[in-house]
Specification:
It is built from twelve helices and nine strands. By secondary structure, the chain is an alpha+beta fold. Helix 8 packs antiparallel against helix 11, helix 9 runs antiparallel to helix 10 and helix 10 packs antiparallel against helix 12.
Length: 413
Amino acid sequence: MLSWKNVHPYFRDKKATKTSETKMNLDFRPSWMNAELDLFRDNITRFLDTEVMPDDAASRERGHVGHAIWRRAGELGLLCTDIPTEYGGGGGDFRHEALVDDEMSRRGLTGMATSVHSIVAHYFLNHGTPEQRAHYLPKLASGELIGAIAMSEPGAGSDLQGIRTRADRIVDGDSNGDADAYVINGAKTFITNGYLAGVILLVVKTDASQGARGTSIIIIDTQDCAGFTVGRVLDKIGMKAQDTAELFFDNVRVPATALLGGKEGQGFFQLMADLPYERLIIGVAATAAIEGALALTLAYTQERKAFGKTLFEFQNTRFKLAEIAAIAKAARAFTDRCVEELVAGKLDTATASMIKMWATEQQGKVMDECLQLFGGYGYMNEYPIARMFADARVQRIYGGSNEIMREVIARAL
């Protein structure tokens, strides 16, 4: 079986790599890289190759990576890299986050959903009260807490206005003696990090009569939370190492101070404000997966022989890989431009929706073509390309389905 260290410039000893001037540069180094980011990338790759990949098969079997690897990532400064240092974060910017997701995605590693973890951190940073930021952000940065955001429900996926989980305010107290609290009832599904999460940002209705304006986000501390239950770790067709779970809330009681930002009815605005960040992360992962799949397939076809010659010597193989290389180059250019715009504070929702939609569509096409070139071996889960093929499918669904992305883009035309 092919080893990652033999198939891609990122995973090889740079000193041992010689690239002919006549060969295309498939290093795909982002245009925004610098010396500091190169060093940071080295730390990421070392962590992934030595501590995450060796346990990946076991993680896929049990359906999660466990808490210890999250805490280890926190120790190494790989969590909340773009959160200010005053809150325990890395003090970097989105480029640091992009590198973490990039390196995991090109290796087909899905167990640590650091992207969702970072999105949770940004909700606290951008919308939380000073007390909420000071309490939760350091714990998220250290890996002491793993973050999840619970939006989707059995009857409401991309339609967030259709959620039914409710939080009823009790101001004067009741038989339980709470003077000011919320009582929460409902269910959520498809929740990334749901099994391991120590803190959940729960999207609820605080006033069902107000539509979107009646939506709020409640902070749930999962440890010793009476009435809170984690249901099944869902059996997905891909992303087997990632804990995606059902969550149930049966008269869960939390203090009124658990309201994100301290003001009701802000949930929908809070969700919409961070969409460019979330959608670009998905685009980054899609682009890196395309590049990783190209590297794997190029190496495989240059070694595998049929009818007395390598697969790469067949014109069909070369033409397919040429098309994939062009897609990879285009995706990298588009993604890098979006990263630069986000860092500069200029990435708009429509463009973020474009990169999410287009890159994930291309990811699906590329995985299908690459798996085909692996033949029967491509259908075997022991080969990374098989897992990357299955993992790619959900990219067009979460973060807002690609059908919703098209509607967002069309409205901006």
